Hints:
GO terms for molecular function: hydrolase activity. This protein has helices spanning 21-28, 34-54, 70-80, 127-139, 173-191; strands spanning 64-68, 87-91, 113-119, 144-149. It is an alpha/beta fold. It has a 4-stranded parallel sheet with strand order 1-2-3-4, with helices on both faces. Strand 1 (64-68), helix 3 (70-80) and strand 2 form a beta-alpha-beta unit.
Amino acid sequence: xxxxxxxxxxxxxxxxxxxxxxxxxxxxxxxxxxxxxxxxxxxxxxxxxxxxxxxxxxxxxxxxxxxxxxxxxxxxxxxxxxxxxxxxxxxxxxxxxxxxxxxxxxxxxxxxxxxxxxxxxxxxxxxxxxxxxxxxxxxxxxxxxxxxxxxxxxxxxxxxxxxxxxxxxxxxxxxxxxxxxxxxxxxxxxxxxxxxx
Length: 197
């Protein structure tokens, strides 16, 4: 997008890419453990934020983070850590809280605006996780939106999943476009009208 500085944070390392769904799940798994999520993953994602924030041509009051699936979990965690992002957007992301974190009621309010774009046919995100996330956000007094797209599955933004053989996973063009527009509308609260790509 014109006028934006973009950085894609690669937590796996140069050249490390899952060549199948199974390989991708194996790559992701270590970062979601109790030991690594609040240490290794946090360190890598906050390092990316710190780098962008250090750039002289970046307005550090208007930094956003977006993530898809596992990346959605990562950006939600950044909001939970209160690292002063303006807003985060999670597309079909994991909603589980940080393991062994303090009770939300005892933590400071979240100061980052949050947008969740979720498919109502996403069987990979249990309804219990949705309800627990809602409770967590209320307890943290967050400024958040949760948009559910009808018939959309996990991975609804990914065209290559149009003919996915996996249950609960698939592309949905309508949900993909609507969720992107919702993201641009959120960004516009900080930077004015944003051109559609």
